[in-house]
Amino acid sequence: MHDLRRERQFRAPADGGEIGGLRREGPDDTQPALLMHGGPGLSDYLEPLADELDGLFPMARYQQRGISPSVETGGRDIETHVNDALAVLDALGWEKAIVIGHSWGGHLAMHFAVAHPERLAAFVSIDPLGAVGDGGLAEFVARLSQEVPADDRPRYDELQALDTLTEAQRDESFRMVWPYYFADPSKAPPFPGFAYDMRSSATWDSINEHFEKRTLELGLLTVDVPFLLIHGEASPLPIAEARRTVALVSGGRLVAVPDQGHWPWLERPGVVRAELEGFLGEVG
User: Where are the alpha helices (DSSP H) in the chain?
Assistant: First the structure.
């Protein structure tokens, strides 16, 4: 249950409705931070990360469109997601912010940086889908798939072969690979459970279209905003793609976290906060 004494709800007018989120207060003399969750098509899961970063800066996180309390209609392409993030910043009254995204949210943060660098004080991607080629997507899918135990393999392959999945089938498939997002699957935390946007395939279509256009590969070369990429060395998303991505941004910095997978704040609490404190101390 959310502690509403610490987090206050907000609503941001957006195309077709509103984006719902939660905000926290922080030091008045610091740039605020906007957190972007991954997926695409998942419910927001960043409360534990927000708890870890609590007190560093004013902070907000929001539910991406497709799942309540945000609008469940409208487009799911990159441009719509970027516009939603912009609407959130406007509703919060933040002229500039540090945008911090995880996984797909870290990929979205890069698209936001290309589209609206003037609204960023800095941007941070945590274990994101990369910016070059397919961003490491094919290798990511293959790595997770090969880890599925033999007893689960027939069912997993059956689900992967379906053109569309029900919400229950998406959940079943995700649970099968959940432990293998972590450096030590035997120590993976319990599956947290998610709500799912059943139209998120349109976001993947848009991601792939932008890969073909090289939107990030070319656009990040023009971004002159401090950039930090935190990546687990044991993540199923290949760290080689993180290196290719961070090299695109002048002054971009990569932190490779040893013995960590895709969710570093769950595997090593405090590591993301420590890296952010150092990064923000350097960029001012």
Answer: 47-53, 78-92, 104-115, 137-147, 153-160, 167-177, 201-213, 215-219, 239-246, 264-267, 271-283
Q: Report residue 11 as tokens.
A: 């609503």
Residue 110: inside a domain, yes or no?
Answer: yes
Q: Give the CATH number for residue 52.
A: 3.40.50.1820
Look at the chain and report how many structural domains it folds into. 1
Predicted model pTM: 0.96
**Reduced to 3 states, what is the DSSP secondary structure of residue 240?**
helix
Assess if residue 177 is contained within a domain. Answer: no
91 located within any domain:
yes
Give the residue numbers spanning the domain of 229: 7-137+200-283
Beta partners for 9?
A: 22
Evaluate the omega torsion of the peptide bond into residue 69 and state whether it is cis, within 30 degrees of 0: yes
For residue 65, being part of any structural domain is answered with yes
Distance CA 106, CA 192 (A): 20
Peptide bond into 154 cis (omega under 30): no
pLDDT of the chain, 284 residues: tens digit per residue: 444 458 999 999 999 999 999 999 999 989 999 999 999 999 999 999 999 999 999 999 999 999 999 999 999 999 999 999 999 999 999 999 999 999 999 999 999 999 999 999 999 999 999 999 999 999 999 999 999 999 999 999 999 999 889 999 999 999 999 999 999 999 999 999 999 999 999 999 999 999 999 999 999 999 999 999 999 999 999 999 999 999 999 989 999 999 999 999 999 999 999 999 999 988 76
